[in-house]
Amino acid sequence: MADFFSWFDNSLFNWCLLIFCSLLIGMSKAGLTGIALVILPIMAYIFGGKVSTGLMLPMLIVADFFSVHYYHRHASWRHIFRIMPWVVPGILTGLLVGNYVSDTIFKKIMAICILVGIIIMLWQDLQKSERVAIPDYGWFALILGITGGFATMMGNAAGPIMSIYLLAMHLPKYNFIGTRAWFFFLVNLFKLPLHIFFWKTIHLKSLSINLLLVPFVIGGVFLGIQIVKIIPEKTYRVLVMVTTVAAAILLL
Q1: Per-residue pLDDT tens digits for 47-65
Q2: pTM of the full predicted structure?
Q3: Residue 187: partners with Cβ closer than 8 Å, 6 or more residues away
Q4: Is there a contact between 36 and 28 (Cβ–Cβ < 8 Å)?
């Protein structure tokens, strides 16, 4: 027991941060996208970058499960099938280069990709002509899929990239959340054995911490569901866009 507590310094402050992050994980999976990237630097501060990705993954899967259960009827599988084939090579690339790319370089590359995607999406929104249909181009799903797969493997940080993809499809609020929920549930399940057997960032000690934090994750999901209910459709789209840009700036 003493060895278990010594792994995270037996610090009350660290425990408070972990509980706060667990609530945010649940809320982000319930549809309050963007806030998840606040978690990344906090977890990295406590455990280090690579270790924190493995510690977060089981909590993300738990939150994904409850989000899928609540929003499963709203998923748009056409958009999931379109981007998923490109996500897998992105994940495998992240698996291979994860030990060689510094956190600083990775965050800057990802932030630039997010901002470019936002600019493309806004440009498309400003065009009233149907001739501008960037989301229909194959390269749009290809670039965001590979980038998102790489980002999710390197730091569980593909949320803003997936938000750009789904926002560009102009999905209604609940279709946006349901599609996103199923996408990340499948992706995170795919990543699980990679973290266990290749990076070895998930083990009994990390799962012990996860077990203690799961109630807060579930509480965050239900809290997020209630907040999403009171946000109007147009306001929700703007909120997602603003938090996505803020997350990219934070990474820079």
Answers
A1: 767 788 889 999 999 999 9
A2: 0.84
A3: 87, 91, 149, 152, 158
A4: yes
User: Helix H segments across the chain?
Assistant: 2-6, 12-29, 36-47, 49-71, 77-97, 103-126, 138-155, 159-168, 173-194, 204-229, 233-251
CB burial string 203-224: b at 16+ within 10 A, e below? eeebeebbeebbebbbebbeeb
pLDDT digits (tens, 9 = 90+) for 137-194: 678 889 889 988 988 888 787 888 888 888 888 888 999 999 999 999 999 999 999 9
- For tokens 């998102």, the residue is 148
Inter-residue contact 120 to 143 (CB < 8 Å):
no
Residue 240 CA to residue 57 CA, distance in Å, equals 22
Q: Is the dihedral of CA 229, 235, 241, 243 positive or negative?
A: negative
Query: How big is the chain, counted in residues?
Result: 252
Spatial separation of the C-alpha atoms in residues 19 and 42, rounded to whole Å:
11
Residue appearing with tokens 């291979």: 96
Buried b (16+ CB within 10 A) or exposed e, 163-197: bbbbbbbebebbbbbbbbbbbbbebbebbeebbbe
Cβ(16)–Cβ(229) under 8 Å? Answer: no
252 CB burial (10 A radius; 0-12, 13-18, 19+): exposed
